[in-house]
Amino acid sequence: MFSVLGLFRSVKCPEKPSCSRNPCPFSHEDTHLVPQLQFPKIVQPAAASTSSEHLVPAKRTLGDVSASSPSSSLALEPPKKVAKTISAQGRVRTTVPQAATTPTGAPLLRISPAASKIAVPLRQTMLSTLWKHFSELYSELLPNHPDLARAHSLAQEEEVYSQSVKITYRTAMISCVARVKKRPKPDSISHPSVGTEAEIAKRVLESKAPKSIKYPRVQSSDLESLILSKEKQLELGYVLDPPSSPGGVQPSLEGKVYPKCDRCQKAFLVKRLEHGPETCVAHWGRQVFDKSMGEKQKIWSCCSQPLGSTGCDIGVHVFYENEVADLHARHAFSYTESLSASVLDVVALDCEMIYTTGGMRVARVSIVDGDGKEVFDELVRMDEGVSVLDFNTRFSGITSLDEARLNLVSVRKALQSYIGPSTIVIGHALENDLKTLRMIHPRCVDTVELFPHHAGLPYRRALRALVSEKLGQSIQAGGGTSGHSSLEDARATLDLVRWYLANTKTARLPVSQSSSNTNGTVDP
């Protein structure tokens, strides 16, 4: 037998008094003592307490003010809340406060990785580099504006991020940093070098924005010297005479195989949407040059992908015809005729086009007079047998023709009330509008000729860019959502001609501050 250690002598026997164990390891005494817990003692300073010993309480109440508190006001404040989270193992852990900057002093990018289309570590690295160069640029301003470099680097990174895709972000940021390094050092907060690229561009545009000066109605006599000659019309692609073959004999190519889709460049069978047209995968943008990689290369403007990459847009096959004989077969060309003796002497015209089984057809026609007032703006119903393939809303702004009342023949008759053979028609790339209207008109003023591309034909400057540069205005701002407005474009084209007349030595309009209506603007 093992010897009894007496470990249970302080525990009362559960079977007393009938216990038969001998010896019993438990206590058979009448009294049972429970050992008292001993609390550690702490010695208080003599000045803080009259006693030399004090028991440490198990808990401290909020109202308890210790002698070691730095001030009574701080001691009376409730303790600050501590953020807690539950770990994967179920234990409660305290969240470590996140610093506003990295150890190097660069701003910290606080964003969830799931909410960013670009890796957050890469963004943080580029942000730190950008902050470093902003700090160097603003070295003279930081003593009075310590947060300037931090704020502008964060805003600049967000600008680049919002305009980039995953494949172009890093290159765009490197180019942005290079541009920041080339800026002259500012000596004041109002210096032109202070700000993000978007802010600087906005200030530059505002500084160049011309003052609004009102002009009288543009008369035909002001434009006589700007009318295109027949040779220039031929060079720009205008139709001067209708083909001798019958017109309108084949309005639609439904059921025919067209050799090249205008988007993916593949052959396809032309058929209506309800008959299940083939799916087309292509890029909707233009081919533009990119120098961000240090080497000039062509990319797609819609997605910044290089040529040869898979299309970024899924749609239907469509076709665009430019040969006069083909256009004449869909709908006949004809000369401008006058229906009224009171036709206008000057108009600005613009059209919106859509894709159909008869090629690209006009779907909206807008005309303004020499004052910029709207005189005609109508949707165009398709001819019999012609079905819509794509409204081309991204550019045309058209989503439906349900409200269209007039077909092309009726529109042409209606235009005869405003446009006669003597009327001067103003437009941008006007030959395209006249072709889709199947109009042959001799007196045309084209802003493509007034503001030529520096590389010459066939390159042309975009209307939107010209309006921004010359007039300080923004048009076609709908982008890929609401598209263009032919009425807005017609007015903008008229305003460009006003600007040209007011800023060239060959022709100048007199200024009239009393004119009742104009959208024209010129440089101050």
UniProtKB/TrEMBL annotation:
- Pfam families assigned to the protein according to its UniProt record, in alphabetical order: RNase_T
The UniProt keywords, alphabetically, are: Exonuclease, Hydrolase, Nuclease, Nucleus
GO terms under biological process: negative regulation of gene expression
UniProt xrefs under InterPro entries: REX1-like_exo, REXO1/3/4-like, Ribonucl_H, RNaseH-like_sf, RNaseH_sf
Question: Where's it mainly located?
Answer: nucleus
Subcellular location per UniProt equals:
Nucleus
What's any one GO cellular component for it? nucleus
**What name appears for this protein in its UniProt entry?**
Exonuclease domain-containing protein
Q: What's the source species' lineage?
A: Eukaryota, Fungi, Dikarya, Basidiomycota, Agaricomycotina
